[in-house]
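Quick one: co-fold with zinc ion.
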Amino acid sequence: MFDCHTHVFGPGHVGGAALEAVKRVWGEKYEMKALPEENYECVKKCVGAIVLAFDAPATGMIVPNEYVAEYTSKFLDKLFGFASVDPNKWNAPSLLEYAVKELGLKGLKLAPFYQNFYPDGKKHFPLYAKAAELNIPILWHQGTSFIPEGFLEASRPAALDPIAREFPHLKMIIAHMGHPWIGECISVVRKNTNMYMDLSALGTRSWQYYNAMVLAKEYGVLNKILFGSDYPFFTSEETKESLYQINHLVEGTNMPRILNSEIEAIVHRNTPELLGLVK
Ligand SMILES: [Zn+2]
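Sure, here it is.
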């Protein structure tokens, strides 16, 4: 089990609109905190994991690249730190180059909903060109969230298609199967050979999750689903358990099933090799 989607949130990393929204939705007392040692308690049960930085000043979330690098550099055989740079910054490509070459980070995390940018805007293509040149993957939060200030209309999976066409060798992952636009996510991932999607954070909506998996199966793209948890919101173990429960809703019916062998294949996916993280 390789967890392709985990976070760390240190003291003061989440504020502004994000913190306000989190408290509104999950309660005043909710603390958005996941220290490196807490993250490690989760991912040590996995063969490896990706740990994400977050540079989203537009909504108040800033997990510095240095913070992630300091943690992941202690476990180089197991952890892959992904940088994040705000594409609205004029020097975003050079910030990414620094994070990869100097800090040793292995990928890029982008999130139009939290960073408030339109991914298909040509002015951002130099950043994707830099990722392609550095031969690193991009993990996209390309789906919804609940922060009022976020750019929902910038967050549709199809907005990534022009990027995939321009950079056919660039590996890209759409997190959360692009929820709620799961069909759109599947169609983008199916047509672009170097695109993948992760199933993180889908476990709490059992009907949507079941439908997402069945749709992926019908389109023949179960092989492009990566296992990920979205820790600290879910642990890797919880994610695995909910995946094995995927058919629970339809027990006793003639509805389609996801086979145990298909679930096993996702849980044991060779994600670092697929993404080119190990060379
Ligand atoms: Zn996440």
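If it helps, The domain at 2-274 is CATH 3.20.20.140 (TIM Barrel).
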